Amino acid sequence: MQHTLAFDLGGSSLRLAIVAADGRFVAFVRKPLSIQSADGVVFDVDPMVWWRAFVDGCKELAAVGHDLAAVTAIAGCGFTRTQVFLDGSGRAVRSAIPFQDSRSASLLKDMRANAPEEVRQVIERLGPYEPLSRILWLKQNEPDNWAELRKVVEPKDFLNLMLTGVAVSDTISQAPMVRALGDSRDDVLNALGINRHILPDTYSPFAPVGQVRKGLPEPLSRLAGVPVHCGSIDTWSCVLGSGALVPGLAYSISGTSDVSGVISDAAHAAQGLLTVEWGAGIWQLGGPSQGAATRLQWALDRFCPEAPTAQKLEAAVTAAGETPLFLPYLDGERTPWWDPNLRGAFLGLSTSHHGEDFVRAVAEGMNYLSREILSRAEQANGVRVEHVSFSGGLATSPAVCQLKADVLDRPVFVPGNSETGLMGAALIPASGDPMVSRTQPVEGTFYRPDPTRRRYHDDRFAIFQSASAINAEISHQLAGLARR
């Protein structure tokens, strides 16, 4: 029987599963991870931590009787907009720079002011969360590491490299780099002083990139010769695994960070959103935000520290009463603002507010941001989506699921298997036809919007939009004071 070893590398954990051909999870293990920052601007993570977690996870699977020699394929996914810098032997020359990092902001500002015209045109299109911005930062600030650099890959590519010895990536993961460089890639790289060979070769997510090499530690030695498929970003894999990689549907994934978008059969564009080709005749329009579960955990820890997390969250989200309006830009924001200087705010505070009100406000604010992305994408596509497929850690909370349906005013579908990233990864080698894979039916639960809450959320969303615009100006003024 065919068994796939699937992995899903996230910012807060690595999940591993042995998945049978019928989609049944034969075994599952989760290894906690973290990404640290001292100032909310600079984030670093040692990519070898991911590999050690992978090895340890495989040891756990073997220790409880699962024979890795029965695995017939390996495929995975991982968080994206995270750069791993490799030397010629495949060793990381420094810590990886993950998706939250905005250290390149000051460099980009200086380059816009002082760079030659041909370079300035490229820099104008960049924000600090772009892969190219991190590469330019490395070139400017760490010349010794720059001299050793030979390849830049993403997190799941690093795990594939450790398994196979091959450093490549997939077309979806590399879309931000392709978009930044434009049609004149080599000319742009030459103007920036970057060797084009540091960019990895790209494959389809479904393509094999190599076989597990010999000499890996036990029990990975039992995987020698097993094909490893390229895989892709966690968002794409979650959408595939939830059955939502279909034109006319939308997705929302709330894990460490949040990402939302609409799937269509043609390329469309909207201000602040990312247009990415996700397959033959399949496009997504949307993008990631800076935080999801991390924002709610922040609120729970500060405003409701006395009860278990799940219990606190359900109680807060379902509580009645007046709620402040929360702008969820605690550490800057990516989609749709792409502004590292944005900061969050509670509006409409009074002395009557208590802890649960603040947590509920944070949950609402996160979903108002998702509604902003959905609204822009729907308008660009000229369609109203049938439903939103919701997955990730927060999708395990019925109260959060219902809140999302109410705020978005769309039916929200939650797959029965919450590990949609692993499900999507397992589908990669299980079908040679991507069209067959993504249209497989998925069992789950629908949450319908409460019509009695429509006007409440419509009104608050309109205020959220105008407050976000005003908050941007205030955030920049505060950032200017902080730099004095």
From TrEMBL:
Superkingdom to which the source organism belongs: Bacteria
Residues in Carbohydrate kinase FGGY N-terminal domain copies: 5-241
InterPro entries xref list: ATPase_NBD, Carb_kinase_FGGY, FGGY_C, FGGY_Carb_Kinase, FGGY_N
SUPFAM superfamilies: Actin-like ATPase domain
Molecular functions (GO terms): kinase activity
Coiled coil (residue ranges): none
A Pfam family it matches: FGGY_C
Keywords, sorted A to Z: Kinase, Transferase
Domain Carbohydrate kinase FGGY C-terminal: 251-428
Entries under PANTHER family matching the protein: SUGAR KINASE (PTHR43095)
Similarity field: Belongs to the FGGY kinase family.
Protein name, as recorded: FGGY-family carbohydrate kinase
Native source species: Aquibium pacificus
